Amino acid sequence: MSSKTILITGATSGIGLATAKQSLKLGHKVIITGRNQEKLDQVSKELGVKSYLADSADLTQIAELGKALQNDGVVLDGVVLNAGVFYPTSFEAATPENFDETIAINTKGPFFTLQALLPSLAATSSVVFTSSIVVYKGFAGCSVYAASKAAFESTIRVLNVELADRGVRINTFRPGITATDIHSKAGMSDEQQQETYDSLKSTPLGRELHPEDHVGTILYLLDEASSALRNAVIDVDGGFTL
Fold first, then answer.
1. What is the mean pLDDT of residues 42-63?
2. Environment class of residue 64 by beta-carbon count within 10 Å: exposed (0-12), middle (13-18) or buried (19+)?
3. DSSP assignment letter at 209
4. In this predicted structure, what is the pLDDT of residue 186?
5. pLDDT digits (tens, 9 = 90+) for 119-171
6. Rounded Cα–Cα distance for residues 193 and 128 (Å)
7. What amino acid positions are annotated as catalytic residues?
8. Which in 57, 132, 221, 241 has the greatest CB count within 10 A?
9. What's the rounded Cα separation, in Å, for the pair 198 and 129?
């Protein structure tokens, strides 16, 4: 892959952070976003990269991100729309507040983030969306989360048509159960997380996934090697759904 300028949203932890680290090792220029200024500053300093505060639920911050990139003369070859949240709740217990917050961050967030980034995208650029296997694999407590990811996947189909003349292509990867802090943020105890990971020993991979397991897929979708792909979806689940 030739040297690129890549922006990764939600890159202060998990898959986003792992992708940022590997991208830097490969000689790319990396820009990260996050919604917690203190953590964003910490990771930005650690990696030695430019960062912008941008909460995916805050349309004002998203608009400011777009303007800041233009003012700074940034031209993006690649974007990883990675920021997202998971708030598990049963269908019966789901509330309008839970629904609205999840959709705001996981669907509305990447939609308007990409819109704000359009003026900064290179003539030929690649966008990668971090979705989830919940789009087609049912898990109890994930109805709202699944809806939020599926909604943006459907949007991608349209955007690939509308943005083709701009040289923008968009593809998706769907991670399986991955050991990141999204589970603790969702309220799962260490014991519950370990039980979940132990259950994955029966999969072909034989273990839970880790952020680093997804980096190769993301980088491939950003690379010229995948230049013919439009609306492609790559599942990275260790064989969980076989």
1. 97
2. middle
3. B
4. 65
5. 999 999 999 999 999 999 999 999 999 999 999 999 999 999 999 999 999 99
6. 27
7. 145
8. 132
9. 28
- Tell me whether residue 127 is exposed, middle or buried, using C-beta atoms within 10 angstroms of its C-beta: 0 to 12, 13 to 18, 19 or more: buried
Q: What does the pLDDT look like over 84-122, one tens digit per residue? A: 999 999 999 999 999 999 999 999 999 999 999 999 999
- Rounded to a whole number of angstroms, the distance between the first and last alpha carbons of the chain is 31
47, 30 in Cβ contact below 8 A? yes
Q: Give pLDDT, residue 194.
A: 83
CA–CA dist 102, 109 (Å, integer): 10
Q: Name, in order, each residue with C-beta under 8 angstroms of 207's C-beta and a sequence gap of 6 or more.
A: 197, 200, 201, 238
* b/e 210-227 (16+ beta carbons within 10 angstroms → b): ebebbbebbbbbbeeebe
pLDDT for 189 equals 78
Under a CB-based contact definition with an 8 Å cutoff, are residues 239 and 205 in contact?
yes
pLDDT surpassing 70 at residue 1: no
Pair of tokens at residue 8: 């990764």
Distance of CA 86 to the CA centre of its chain: 12
Q: Are 125 and 223 in contact (CB under 8 A)?
A: no
CA–CA dist 129, 127 (Å, integer): 7
Amino acid, single-letter form, for residue 80: V
The 3-state DSSP class for residue 220 equals helix
Rounded CA-CA distance 152/136 in Å is 14
Confidence of residue 192 (pLDDT cuts 50, 70, 90): confident
When pLDDT is averaged across residues 68-89 and rounded to a whole number, the result is 97
